[in-house]
Automatic annotation (TrEMBL):
GO CC terms, sorted: cytosol
Source organism (scientific name): Stutzerimonas zhaodongensis
Matching Pfam families: Oxidored_FMN
Superkingdom in the source lineage: Bacteria
Classification via PANTHER family: NADH OXIDOREDUCTASE-RELATED, OXIDOREDUCTASE-RELATED
GO molecular function: FMN binding; oxidoreductase activity
Name of the protein described by the UniProt record: 12-oxophytodienoate reductase
InterPro entries the UniProt entry points to: Aldolase_TIM, OxRdtase_FMN_N, Oye-like
Higher taxonomy: Bacteria, Pseudomonadati, Pseudomonadota, Gammaproteobacteria, Pseudomonadales
NADH:flavin oxidoreductase/NADH oxidase N-terminal domain location: 8-354
């Protein structure tokens, strides 16, 4: 193992969170949990990756206990006796394999459509009401709704702690509910949750504070955010480092321990005049550890391989990534599709067997390999 690669396999510690390597499994929706319950296949899927050198697993998005939180079939839940028992089995398997694991807590917001499980009559919930053909397709959230969702996240975090998870990640990215409040296009409220970006951040801040209060001071909270949205890949929440700092500081103060900075291509600079990516800027501005992510280990950014296509993403060298990690631009590296297709990705990188890494294609999404 070269000195550069060695950086990826150094331990990381932040308070109670002690990771054996800097490799993180990125959260990726797999939809293999009928009735919201992780199966034995899900347990084995995560265990294999922990056994092969992934230091921290961030689970696929798991829905919190709110009637409108889910937007997709067979997504795992993080509430109720059977789903939590399923996740406890995942935790025990990952720990036995030497890894650490946190659930990504998720509410899809206005992305939800009527007819979606588990309560098909419930419309999407979002910052603003949307009516189509005389029918409410998105329920504009009242202040009570906001408090109900915050309480659901806090309860999920408390349950995560109770079943032995090593922390939690709050999904505040990609145009889902928390992000919908950030974004001016989807949040034109006239109360204290709308208006300036500071006001539009209030929901997230109160949510983080509630999670922190539920789990105490020592349980790690990761917050995932993005500039791009699934509805608009060119969107930018902020356009300068100064504005990014103003956005992140209140979130950091509310209780975030680690920022997970979602980008489509980790190698792209976030702002003109600097080579720092979003994770690099976030670390510099907040002083908090960061996770970088975005087409790590493959020869093209992920979206071109996620549509209906026969394209195959080949393994790519990670020299640029390792150089940034060695310079401490960021602390942890999240790997997505490369770990879907090859559970042994980390082990092969560690052993210098790049030629043995399996390529990614859409076929890999059909099974839990």
């Amino acid at each position: 193992m070269t000195a550069a690669v060695n950086a990826l396999f150094q331990p990381f510690q932040l308070g109670s969170l002690q990771l054996p390597t800097r490799v993180v499994m990125a959260p990726m929706t797999r939809s293999f949990s009928p009735n919201g319950v992780p199966t034995a296949d899900v347990v084995e899927y995560y265990r294999r990756r922990a056994a092969s050198g992934v230091g921290l697993i961030i689970t696929e998005g798991t829905t919190v206990g709110h009637k409108a939180s889910n937007g997709y079939p067979q997504v795992p839940r993080f509430y109720g006796e059977a789903p939590l028992a399923g996740w406890k089995a995942v935790v025990e398997a990952v720990h036995a394999a030497g890894g650490k694991i946190v659930p990504q807590l998720w509410h899809v917001g206005n992305v939800r459509h009527k007819g979606t499980e588990p309560e098909p009559e419930v419309p999407g919930y979002g910052p603003m009401e949307k009516v189509k053909d005389g029918e409410v397709v998105v329920h504009g959230m009242t202040k009570q709704d906001i408090q109900d969702v915050i309480a659901a996240f806090a309860q999920a975090a408390k349950d995560a702690q109770a079943i032995g998870m090593d922390g939690v990640e709050i999904h505040g990215a990609h145009g889902y509910l928390v992000d919908q409040f950030f974004w001016e296009g989807s949040n034109q409220r006239t109360d204290e949750y709308g208006g300036s970006l500071a006001n539009r951040s209030r929901f997230a801040i109160e949510l983080i504070e509630a999670v922190r209060a539920a789990v105490g001071p020592d349980f790690p909270i990761i917050f995932r955010f993005s500039q791009w949205k699934q509805q608009d890949y060119s969107a930018r929440l902020v356009t300068t480092p100064e504005a990014l700092g103003e956005f992140l500081e209140p979130l950091s103060a509310a209780g975030v321990d680690i920022f997970h900075c979602s980008t489509r291509r980790f190698w792209e600079p976030e702002f003109e005049g600097s080579d720092l990516n979003l994770a690099g800027w976030t670390r510099q501005l907040t002083g908090k550890p960061t996770i970088t992510v975005g087409s790590v280990g493959l020869d093209g950014e992920f979206l071109q391989f996620m549509i209906k296509t026969d394209k195959v993403a080949q393994p790519a060298n990670i020299e640029g990534l390792l150089e940034r990690l060695n310079k401490q631009e960021f602390d942890l590296v999240a790997v997505g599709r490369a770990l879907i297709c090859d559970p042994d990705w980390a082990l092969k990188v560690k052993e210098g067997r790049m030629q043995d890494i399996l390529p990614f294609s859409r076929e890999a999404l059909k099974t839990l390999a």
